[in-house]
Structure formats: C-alpha cells, structure tokens
Amino acid sequence: MTETAVHTTHKPYGPYEKYFKRPLDVVCALLAMTVFCWLYGLVAVLVRINMGSPVLFTQLRPGKDEKIYKLYKFRTMTDDRDENGELLPDEKRLTKFGKWLRSTSLDELPEAFNILRGDMSVVGPRPLLVKYLDRYTPEQHRRHEVRPGLTGLAMSTVRNSAGWEEKFELDIEYVDKISFLLDVKIIIWTVIIVLQRKGINEPGEVTNSEFMGTMKEKQ
Q1: Where is average pLDDT lowest: 83-92, 105-114, 118-127, 147-156?
Q2: Which member of 10, 61, 168, 193 has the greatest number of CB atoms within 10 A?
Q3: Distance (Å, rounded) from C-alpha 89 to C-alpha 73?
Q4: How far apart are CA 150 and CA 191, in angstroms?
Q5: 191, 163 contact by CB (below 8 A)
Q6: Would you put residue 204 in left (φ > 0), alpha (ψ -120 to 50) or beta?
Q7: b/e 54-74 (16+ beta carbons within 10 angstroms → b)
Q8: Coil, helix or strand for 66?
Q9: 68 has which bridge partners?
Q10: pLDDT confidence band for 88 (50 / 70 / 90)
C-alpha cells in the first residue's frame, strides 16, 4: 500500500465550507480545551489509575486527500500480550472502564488537538485505519475529499450499528451536502445518540469489525 496523497477534485459546496467551516473548527476546539480542561484532566487521571501509562493512544490515520496524520485519543485498551509477545484480541484488552469511555465518547476528547492542528474537523467522515485505503472502491475513496471529523453523518445517525457500506454511503452523502445547518444537525444528533448510548458497536461485536472491502465490487 502506498501512502501517497490522493489529489481530489472536490469543490467546496458553498461559502460555509470554503470560508467559515475551518475558522469555526478552530474556535470550537479552543473553547472545548478551555472550558473542559478539568474534564481532560479528570479523564487522564482515571485512565492512569485504571490502565496505567501511557494515558493517550496514538495511531496513524488518513486525513483529507488521504494524507497521513497522528490521531490522539484516550486509551481504552490494555497492552496485555500472550506468551509469544503478541497483543491479545481487542475483546480481551478492552476493559470495563474502556467500554464506558467509548460509550460516552470521552475517549475522543484529545481529538480537539487534531482539529486545532488542521488534521480534522468537528464534523466529517470518521477517520479509519490506514490499511483500509487499499480496500475502498473509487466511490468510497471520496470520503477523504474533506477533513475527517470528530463526529459525522454516519456517527450521528447509525453510529457503529450499521455495516461498513451503509456508513460509507452516509460519508459520501455528507461530502456532497456540506452546510452549516447540516453540521449543526449532526452535532445535535450526536449528542442525543451518545446520551442514549445507542449503536456503540456492531451487533455481536465488542469493537468494530475489520473492513475487508466491498464484496459486490470485487465480484
């Protein structure tokens, strides 16, 4: 797999996306880190007590135009390994406290730093794994025409309860319909769905299943 950035032909949907979305992202990130600095500190202490060090989880993710950046989150899994030194499966490393962090989305708080840096936006398709880049269809690659988001149309409606194809379709729908009103709606929907603890994982899964590619496109 190559990590060469993809140059897209995406054009801003309107003045909001072109002139206002990024400045509003910066304002929201700064406000969040200022107003909720106490919450950052509290969660960091709880992670340190429950899972030790490090407190933060970092991982490379593809951003706008598939440029790779380092994502920051609060850690939700231990580093427990088997006798061969291999990490145990996610379901064995995800602690009860980690499940709670994910259900409340508090593990996502450090992504405000990514928003401030310009890696991410408040609203956009959720950033996924780098290894998925070779598995997308040409249409699915379009989710990277905009900055990935702290939340998005898929997260605010189906969260993780739907299949990959449905979530990608919602991502592309967002790319084609970006507007201030839509972003506001997505933020409100996200707050509601998080408070209701709905769609945290796919049915029968402790964490998200791995995306192996869209089979109908391979046939």
Answers
A1: 83-92
A2: 168
A3: 19
A4: 12
A5: no
A6: left
A7: eeebeeebbbbebeebebbbb
A8: helix
A9: 62
A10: confident
